[in-house]
Amino acid sequence: xxxxxHRSRIVAAVAVATALGVTGCDAVGGDSPAPSASxxxxxxxxxxxxxxxxxxxxxxxxxxxxxxxxxxxxDCPEASWATGASPQVDSLAVxxxxxxxxxxxxxxxxxxxxxxxxxxxxxxxxxxxxxxxxTVMAGANDACRSSPAAMTPVSAFRSDFEDAxxxxxxxxxxxxxxVASVPNLKRLWSQGRNSPLGKQVWQLGICPSMLGDADxxxxxATLRRDTVQKRVEDYNKVLKEVCAEDKRCRYxxxxxxxxxxxxxxxxxxxxxHPSVNxxxxxxxxxxxxxxxxxx
Length: 295
Prior knowledge:
about 45% helix; alpha/beta; five-stranded parallel β-sheet; 13 helices; about 5% strand
């Protein structure tokens, strides 16, 4: 009995030692075999911002429609900075998707004369296409009213913009948004006021709050223009703040507002809207913002 018991204890001790030995080798990385190569690596987290979206939809106003870029008082969507096909512009959609895919995978829902209050409706149209990127350029017409008193209140501007983004998020929670700042309207006035033709077109009703009585330099005219300019700055602050609350929204950092449009970048018919050259500059700004790695 003692021999059998002694033998059993030896067998048990060997088994335990063997098990401990194997475990010890694994723990210190000795001569034990490497983990199976068939083990799958941990998946990389999906980035919040994709710098190469596969489709683009545009919403906004006359600038995104290419108004007065090709002909007097006419839309020219082929010259749009956002979705146009013109090789002279090289639009954001063309830069991101290539010319062939841009023709099939980009859509322009902007409307000449649109204000921020119109953006939710445009966004409703855009989301039906399920775009991966939506571009927004709106606000100039909220400041370009018959008088400063008629400009859209900042609170209403904010509410309408939030409503537009909410419309997008409810339908497409992962869609990306590029938001362009409102241009510097006072600078556009200072560039175009020396053109007799431009001033004639301005009298047809283009941004009267800023461009009306273009040659007037008295205190009342100066105050009027400064009031409009301050409202534009307030609108841009709203765009920045609301966009910052959305993880998949990028604001241009006032790049459009700060861009020094010269006569070459302004329509030769109204010296206010971007020319084909100006549309190309807007496309460059948008592309830099959308493709930036860290923002």
